[in-house]
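ingest -> fold -> write
write: protein_1
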Amino acid sequence: MISHRGLLFIALLWLAAMLVSPLLDKQVLVEQRPTKVVIYNNTADTLNFVIMEERSSRFTRWQPCDHPKLCGDRGIMPGMSGDLPYELIHNWYPGTEIAVFWWHLIPDSTSRNGYRVDGPNKIVVRTPGRAFYEYQ
């Protein structure tokens, strides 16, 4: 027979698993913090990314880097996270939406430089508003 403590322990383990599992289900998770955005890479490959103010991203001509030498050391390794202070995002202001574009480089012998891009994918999040940003 299981004691009350044993049942409580099992219930707590189950609850913890339910709280964590949504985070692990997402390939890429973007979290807003008071002064920065954090990106979690739950994929099996290095994650490359660009972050822009969302409205500006609609009018900005850009394309993902398509070779590891062009992407530099900015990529996020599998199972790791990276962050970027809001002040470094072009056209950012408190309370605006930002667009996080992300992709992987896949080795491909048929492409001109040996890699192909599997994206970009886009995640849009709203950053903390002015009052929250100034007083936290």
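write: protein_2
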Amino acid sequence: MTITKGMSARLTASNGKSPSPDWMATLHLTDENSAQDFAMAADGSGGFEIELTPAQTSSLGAGAKDFAVKATKGGQAVIIAKGRLEVLPDPTQAGDKRTQDEKDLAAVEKAIRDIIAGGAVQSYSIQTTVGQRQLTRMTLEELRAERRQLLRITGKSPDRWRPIKPCFGDYHHYRLRR
């Protein structure tokens, strides 16, 4: 599920049972840096809904978020929906629209180019939204391993081979198709 910053978004949640009218629901959006809660309204068919305004979606940080819809009544509470939500940057705003993983990948690729072009470099700094992440004295092989991991995470890996372990025997490599 994706939403775009600065745009309206409608979210619904239901656990398949019709809750009584005195149940309340809250949408919880969390990531490693923040947590935001939004009150949801009953939708009349046993679930809950919320229409996020452009101002509300603008307040969200771009990137992956965990979401959970928690329904409560008195001392009872139940999670009726949970999962991952991708918040896309506002396409009308200026600025770097890459995800943090894409920014990290660019920094690692720059470090690899610097080593190849200029010899040994002692340290690299990668700026993250959490703060400064310092990578010190990484060898070329360590940087290439980090690059491979970030390529897989961002989905930009040209390598379509993936090790698959069968029930018996050694690892075999199979070519995956899109």
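write: annotation protein_2
The CA atoms of residues 70 and 79 lie 4 Å apart.
Residues 100-159 form a domain with the Head-to-tail joining protein W, gpW fold (CATH 3.30.1580.10).
pipeline exit 0
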